[in-house]
Amino acid sequence: MPGIVRARVRAALRRPDRTLRAARPVPLTPEETEQRALLLRLMSLLLQYPDAELAAARPVITSTVAALPPSSAAGHLAEFTAWFTGQETDALERHYVETFDLRRRSSLYLTYYLHGDTRRRGMALLTLAQRYRAAGWDTGGGELPDHLPVVLEFAALTGPGRGEAPLRQHRRGIELIHRALTDADSPYRHVFAALTELLPPPTEADLRAVAELAAQGPPDEEVGLDPYGAGEFAPPGAFVPPGQAPPTLVPPSAPHRQEDRR
User: Fold this and answer.
1) CATH number for the domain including 139?
2) Known InterPro entries for this protein (predicted)?
3) DSSP code at position 105
4) Are the CB atoms for 174 and 146 separated by under 8 Å?
């Protein structure tokens, strides 16, 4: 990973800075598409569970962010990495669990915000996994397909069109997480601020839906995934937040994170 990142950064430094929003009418150049992919991949890494492996990679990640061409998204990532590099690993782990595992409003499982605990979520997970397979991408099965780091990695690999379609589809959920992190004053709000810089701005309808979602929560219907064949993504019970499959980067020898979350 570090070699790939450094190569992408060296190439990016030779390019003029331009707005990276996908919503703009002018198509991205190949160089801008590469720079965008690097930003998305960095966000994917920074939103994964900060185990010892990720903590050890902080110098490379930080230097990569520092070498990015100036942009609003790069500035937000620099704000986050300044905090990220100054924390002890155990403190990072605690903050991550408290932020993303113990608070439903900032869960990283995107289909939850759109479908809640309903049968539709099982179908949405299956459809998303099929999208990955159709693009020739194997996630490795370590996480549910709607886990935001997984969705970001797919976007980085596949490109602004179909690759970023799941991000655009879940724009309201991303906006709600961003608001929750901002309300909690979590440094992870900077990563979401960088992400929203790359997405189309929310519409008035989006903002109304986010406000309603924040007030009422998503739909609720206690069901499992098995009737839709989605059991392959996680063990039984992982469907209902905040239960989840093991974090992407946690090695088998690492201590188990809290599974019975409320």
Assistant:
1) 1.10.3480
2) DMSO/NO3_reduct_chaperone (IPR020945), NO3_reductase_chaperone_NarJ (IPR003765), TorD-like_sf (IPR036411)
3) G
4) no
